[in-house]
Queue: 2 jobs
Job 1
Amino acid sequence: MSANKYEEIAQAAIRLFQQKGYHATSVQDIADEVGLQKGSLYHYISSKEELLMKIAHQSISGFNRRLEKIIDMEVNHREKLFMAVQTHITVVAANMQMTTVLLREAFSLAEPHATIIQELTDRYLDLWTRIIDEGIAAGEFKPGNSRLKALAILGACNWLYRWYETDGPLSADEISKVFADIFLDGVAYHKPGGSIPPS
Amino acid sequence: MSANKYEEIAQAAIRLFQQKGYHATSVQDIADEVGLQKGSLYHYISSKEELLMKIAHQSISGFNRRLEKIIDMEVNHREKLFMAVQTHITVVAANMQMTTVLLREAFSLAEPHATIIQELTDRYLDLWTRIIDEGIAAGEFKPGNSRLKALAILGACNWLYRWYETDGPLSADEISKVFADIFLDGVAYHKPGGSIPPS
């Protein structure tokens, strides 16, 4: 079995699942896209579900791995949150189709796949929550519901898959700076002395 | 034609599109759900696409209408942004299935429906951007890319459809307060005098 051919099939599936949706894409569509007979395609994959699972698994595992590295870095928590936002946005912008399949299509997975992806997604939220918690413990961030704050930040960053234009005027870096600035300091001017940490 | 029966069909379609996805739901599934023969269902609707369009149109139009009312209110822009966040989150939390159909399934619409929904969605983003722009003009909000800031805030609020639990511990009001606090003032403590508006 050729690893290259398998990768070509996975890339075709990403394109088709993003464009038409998982349910509207047939195994025949995928076979046509890579120039194979449907019977030959089954030498490489056992089912359409297997492809969706591999795509979703690769995508969410990559997000987790990158964020784990950031958490282990020796920088302050402002910087850590900035890097988390920048890395997530850079990955979404560079992998729009794959991220769309993860975020829009993975709900179609059957068990046990659905639970595996859900656990990896929960793990990703846990990592974001940990950055906020550690920032609170370090006296850099304000106290409050860290999981809810992580969901706000992660939601904003995930939503990029809906509006980011690969050929648009804004780079992932420019978007990251504006987003991180909002999450860290908000859109409003602050009242003098209104938000100083207790000493 | 009974308006009640039509409404019952629309509610069944919302449930099925949310649970199985639009493509995986057949007209037969919808007929079964409301206890009609498939032929009789076609007395009420012309197609599955028509149902998806009506659901998406009703949902996004409601978001627009509510935000237009908030924009016209005589309050400051902090308060306006808070109310926009609170209203959006309250509507998503109270209409999780319908919002999921709008945000996850409407990409399956064909033309001219796709363009109509896209224009109403663009209009909604314009309204959020306007709140930020007017807050900047009033000296309440910091200058910057207002559309990008609106996309961050709206993305975070939209993402609720993915994680909000109707029977969970957090009310829409509690979530709104945490979210609006992040968008207005950020998660970090601010350096004394670091973010005072220029006078």
Job 2
Amino acid sequence: MQLYSFFNSSTSYRVRIALGLKGVAFDTLPVNIRVGEHRDETYVATVNPSAVVPAIVDGQFSLGQSLAIIDYLDAAYPEPRLIPQDTEARARVLELSSLISCDIHPVNNLRILKYLQEVLKVSPEQKDAWYQHWIAQGMAGVERLLSRHSHGQWCFGDAPTLADVCLIPQIANAQRMRCDLSRYTRAMAIYAHAIEHPAFAQAAPAMQPDYSA
Amino acid sequence: MQLYSFFNSSTSYRVRIALGLKGVAFDTLPVNIRVGEHRDETYVATVNPSAVVPAIVDGQFSLGQSLAIIDYLDAAYPEPRLIPQDTEARARVLELSSLISCDIHPVNNLRILKYLQEVLKVSPEQKDAWYQHWIAQGMAGVERLLSRHSHGQWCFGDAPTLADVCLIPQIANAQRMRCDLSRYTRAMAIYAHAIEHPAFAQAAPAMQPDYSA
């Protein structure tokens, strides 16, 4: 298994956690999105036509998009399962995962912040306010969902699921951007628990071969 | 089945298509996100803690997030299946669906455009350029994925899947915002085919009870 990854990409971070939880050995192939390596012609032509990270190559099969990758891993390497099979339990996990991966993460990722700064010429203060606004709005929804449905030490029960795999990189990102997260008590309790888990710890940006401060 | 929906929301549009394809009868309960009805206290407390549209209530079970809803519908109302069960076919459908729902749609939705205009005070031209930039970048990825993997009259084969359910509202949105889509020939051929299908036609914004020009 090969993983095309950027240390600071939270979608790459998700896949690293999933591979770690499943104990799947993989080689990390760094793609430096800060200098546009994800748009490299060979990468786009042979690995990932979407021209983003992450992507996996598993034997002859290559695949992009973190949520699609993790769904694939759940079929190809089913233990431990990260997306429950029970209809309603599964729906809760996918609902929280979608809230994070569709409503929070995309509006604050690197390409958006670059466009704000380079094209729209926003100030550093406006950029930070943008970031914090969407974190505050999104995390309020996360916390309400968790307050209603969460149980156990993880988002949903006594084992990590895709919801935790999405939540922990999102919180790590928000902390890096100095967002005040103290009011999201349930989410932060799950975060504190999760980062002690070896699969989560080893997937962190600072543990990656391409890490730079 | 009750669907909380806004006529012009493309995530609501996805769920309307899915319900139509499956022949599930539903009542549309309009939520006018232009005037903030999605933040209504009762809606958030009793229907959708994420405070967005769409949401469904199916008997005692309420659920938000379009992709989670469609995955739920595939379990609860399995015919016709919109997310294949075969591992690799499923991965392709989820990859394209994620590209649209995570990388394209979120950065151009109403709340983002409002923030650009109301907080960052961008000009109408800058707002349009923003919209068209992300459509061009995202649709180029969609077209490359389709060129590599698409077959049949739909995105993947001879029946619609979640990929088509995500693609058609995204293209409809981009057309409404006057994006030039002519270069995405495979995507546009699928679009032309899909909008003739009754489930797609009946799910269109102009067919909804809360439609306004």
